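Lecture notes, continued. The same structure-token format from the folding unit now serves as the input rather than the output. Read the line below as a description of shape only.
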């Protein structure tokens, strides 16, 4: 966003403020299933019994908002875009009948592992 007009920055700030409002976050969560980003929205959804009526929507939120552990402090998947492309390419082969499901999945795993090895080698601590 570097180099934009001051009015553009002001517009972006107003928009960000708007979408962060608890009411908007509640609507967004209920409508799309995406997680709300404010504690106020979460508390309002709880108070309104939304999560009691929709316990499956509480599952991810509850898991993400619990006490962090070594296994819950986020994930890293190096070169994610390349791995996704490898998986999608192999799925295309399966859907086009060029490979069996097993062959496609095995190839996707092998390609993904190769990409991860390259990432690990390039990003040694």
């Amino acid at each position: 966003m570097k180099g934009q007009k001051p009015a553009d920055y002001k517009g972006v700030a107003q928009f960000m403020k708007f979408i962060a409002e608890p009411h908007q976050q509640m609507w967004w969560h209920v409508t799309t299933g995406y997680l709300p980003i404010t504690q106020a929205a979460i508390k309002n959804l709880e108070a309104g019994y939304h999560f009691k009526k929709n316990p499956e929507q509480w599952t991810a939120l509850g898991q993400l908002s619990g006490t962090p552990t070594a296994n819950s402090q986020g994930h890293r998947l190096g070169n994610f875009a390349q791995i996704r492309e490898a998986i999608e390419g192999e799925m295309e082969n399966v859907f086009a009948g060029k490979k069996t499901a097993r062959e496609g999945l095995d190839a996707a795993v092998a390609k993904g592992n190769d990409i991860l090895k390259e990432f690990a080698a390039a990003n040694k601590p």
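Point for the exam: The mean pLDDT is 88.
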